[in-house]
Structure formats: structure tokens, C-alpha cells
Design goal:
heterodimer; A: Heat Shock Protein 90; B: alpha/beta; Transcription Regulator spoIIAA; globular
Chain lengths: ~140, ~110
């Protein structure tokens, strides 16, 4: 499969979710990814992005969140960079099972979805920046 | 996202069209809460035309389910795309929420 890459910047407002979706669909369609695969990558990116918008900045100013997506040898690699407060998704406790409506973890749900939908998650704090790399193997899907 | 609300006897049906994310979930939350205030007890959410859901959407479904249980109401979800259903399964919601294939199945579950 061809090597392909795209990158874009999003402002720290959830109104940018539509732009995120448009960019991702364009990338996915160019590569011929399935609707399901595009959906899953969209969901993981959305959860991270919405987290950054909600908790990353307390100053009320505008900030840019950088997204870069590449595809090579059957793996889609998504890199998200922001300058908000340090946040390692791995620090969020993963619920073992959710089989009771009353103990359903409302807080960590987004992170739980990302961990299940992506094949690899690597978090780095680089100076004042969070750099999160998500990998999804698409060859087998 | 578009929400089309209809009624079938005492069942309120909400057909979702588009994307349910952190931008659009407040409007769904408002509409479902409004219906409950108006006395709706049995609800069907029709996902046939829903292309996308994030955890923001799941939270609204969870909240509505809890609120309905307090009033001894019921909720049934139907007609999900397979990848949307998978998200409900990963979240574990399928263990306490009835998810059926068609709108008719959903209505059948609520009016035996």
C-alpha cells in the first residue's frame, strides 16, 4: 500500500471537530481505508482532542493543536502535539469490566475507548509539550 | 446532527441523523430531558442514520438510561451500524442496555 501523509492544525475549541473529521475522511478515502477504520481513528483522535480542549488550557487563550497522520506498511500513525498541561493517558485507570450501570466509569470512558481501538499508544512530554503517538494496524482489519 | 422525534402509542422514538459528538450531544441531552419532563417513560433511540458517536454521546445515553430507571421507564436502542455497536460493546454498555437490530424489534420489546 502507498505511503501517505497529512498534517493540520486545530484551534482549542470543539467546533474544530468538524475540521478534524473532514481532514481525516479525505486522508482515509485517498488511502482507501474502510468506513469502520476511518471511524475508529476519528473516534480516538476526537477523544484526545476533546480532552485537550477541556482540560489542557486554563488561560482562556487560543492555542493550536498539531495533528500529523502517516501511513506506511499497513500501519496508520497519528501524532498529536499540544502545549497544554502534562497528561499521560496511561495514568487513567482502565476499568476491568463494566457490567453494572451504577459503577460505569463516566470519567475515563474516552481513554478506555482509545486503548481498545488503537494498537499502540506512546506518550512523551517533550519540554513544554505533550506528544501522543497512536498506532493502528490496518492490514488485518 | 438532526433529531427527529415521533410517537408510537406511549413510546417516544428519537431518530438520530449525523454525528453525535461533544458539539452535538448537548442538543440530544436537552431533547431527551425535555421528553422525560413531559412524561415520556418508554424511549427508542434509532441509530440507523447515525454515522458517528464519541464518549460524549455515550454519556448522554447512560445518563438518560439512569434517569429513566428512576421513573421505572425503559429505553431500547436500535439499528446501529456495526462499528457504532462495537463502541457500545467496548464501553460495556451492551451489558445493561438492550440493543436490537430494527425499529420494529425495539417497539416490540416495549409493547409486548
Amino acid at each position: 500500500m502507498a505511503c501517505c501523509k497529512t498534517s493540520f492544525k486545530l484551534k482549542n475549541t470543539t467546533a474544530e471537530l468538524d475540521k478534524l473529521c473532514r481532514n481525516l475522511e479525505q486522508f482515509g478515502n485517498t488511502l482507501g481505508l474502510t468506513k469502520k477504520c476511518i471511524f475508529q481513528i476519528n473516534l480516538a483522535l476526537d477523544e484526545i482532542f476533546t480532552n485537550i480542549v477541556s482540560y489542557g488550557y486554563q488561560d482562556g487563550d487560543n492555542h493550536w493543536i498539531k495533528v500529523a497522520i502517516t501511513h506506511e506498511n499497513g500501519t496508520v500513525v497519528i501524532r498529536i502535539e499540544d502545549s497544554g498541561v502534562a497528561f499521560d493517558p496511561d495514568s487513567v485507570e482502565d476499568p476491568d469490566t463494566i457490567d453494572d450501570i451504577d459503577c460505569c466509569p463516566v470519567g475515563g470512558l474516552g481513554i478506555h475507548l482509545i486503548k481498545k481501538l488503537m494498537d499502540e499508544i506512546v506518550y512523551e512530554r517533550c519540554g513544554e509539550k505533550n506528544v501522543l503517538t497512536l498506532k493502528k494496524n490496518i492490514a488485518v482489519h | 446532527m438532526e433529531i427527529i422525534e415521533t410517537r408510537e402509542k406511549d413510546i417516544s422514538i428519537f431518530k438520530l441523523n449525523g454525528r453525535l459528538d461533544s458539539n452535538t450531544s448537548p442538543s440530544l441531552e436537552k431533547q431527551l430531558a425535555g421528553a422525560m419532563e413531559d412524561g415520556a417513560k418508554n424511549m427508542v433511540i434509532d441509530f440507523a442514520d447515525l454515522d458517528y458517536i464519541s464518549s460524549a454521546g455515550l454519556r448522554i445515553i447512560l445518563k438518560t438510561t439512569k434517569d429513566l430507571r428512576r421513573t421505572e421507564g425503559n429505553i431500547v436502542l436500535c439499528a446501529m451500524q456495526d462499528y457504532v455497536k462495537e463502541v457500545f460493546e467496548i464501553a460495556g454498555f451492551d451489558s445493561f442496555l438492550p440493543i436490537v437490530s430494527t425499529l420494529d424489534d425495539a417497539l416490540g420489546k416495549l409493547q409486548p
